Amino acid sequence: MIRVYGIKNCDSVKKALSFLKKHALEYEFHDFKTQELSREQISSWLKKTDIKTLFNSRSTTYRTLKLKELNLTDEQKAEWLYKENMLIKRPVIEYNSELLVGYNEDNYTKVLL
What we know:
By secondary structure, this protein is an alpha+beta fold. The chain has a single domain, classed as Glutaredoxin. 43% of the residues lie in helices and 16% in strands. The protein has helices spanning 11-22, 39-48, 51-54, 60-64, 74-83, 105-112; strands at 2-6, 27-31, 92-95, 98-101. The longest helix is centred in the N-terminal third of the chain and has 12 residues, at 11-22. It starts with a strand and ends with a helix. The model has no long low-confidence stretch (mean pLDDT 96).
């Protein structure tokens, strides 16, 4: 089963869901705003990808919290991901043992089709 994590009004998430629907792929959607992610879930993702890929330093939340000024280490960034799911780059797609972060149609085609 394909699991998609993100928020419904995110353009990248909309593109990902559109790709899945276009190719008639079944999926489960987990909305960060209504379903908080566990520390264990995020930790498992960090074992499959690096913090630079998962941590969204271009998000509104990042700017609002003024995190750039803190010059965070990778460990501190991970702690922020646990506390504030909106700092996770979207969408995150889990499929079998694969983890796809962000919208990339070529990667989606290779992994999901």
